[in-house]
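Blackboard transcription, Thursday session:
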Amino acid sequence: MNTKKVTRTAAFTAVAILLGYVESLFPPIAAGVKLGLANTVVITVLYTQSTKEAWAVAIMKAILCAALFGSASSFVYSFSGAIISLLVMIIAKKSNLFSLIAVSSLGGIFHNMAQLLCAYFFIGKGVLFYIPVLFVSGALCGILTGIAAKILVKRGIELFGKE
Amino acid sequence: MKKGDIALLIIAVIVLAIWLFPSQKGEVVSIYVDGKIYETLPLEKDSETLVQSEYGKNKVVIRGKKVYVTDADCPDRLCEKTKITKSGRSIICLPNRLSVVIEGGKSNEKIDVII
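(Written on the board underneath:)
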């Protein structure tokens, strides 16, 4: 990574953390349902920069957000969600079967599913009844953040060019 | 829209349909703490149960076949916002590792197969 890349990745991470913070100020729509605005930044990085930088932003955002505004238990949930969701988004993007908005939607679904799996270990089978709610809400929130990311990607390529 | 988009949309609609499909009335309310059964109560009878564990405290109330949680000592108190009446639905309190599930009835058997 050269200096330009490091600086750019740091700036993207800062924006992701800020979006995560702004979102934490609003009460959740329903138990466990969050829009995931920071995902917009991760997708923008994934599409305009590289996979490596997307990993850096996603991991740093999860660690710093938990350290700044969260707790140890929220870290487990957000970290596993971030890793699985990015992994799925990278595979979905490489497969060339999905549009950007669908990639974002898949990211949202798998973010929720990873968190649910964590909750399953801590709480037990009671959480499994939430699968349909978290699946549908993840898909919908992913579509919304995907629409925002699509605009950002288009403008981002105009501004910095694709690397 | 690409091929995968359409497939994803179909799957999402199916999951939504499963969720919205009317489920049967349940019979018992099971309270779990840290994945282990804490207490089982009849849904028919009104009751108030204080659940105290090393993770925290919640009160599970059954009134008029509706189940809800009050007096939670968790920070976000999200569990107090959920009210359940049907079999298979649950109330979760992540910080206190508590889950309250209505069991019995047809839809519950379906979910048991998945596990």
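Lecturer's comment: Residues 5 and 80 of chain A are 26 Å apart (CA to CA).
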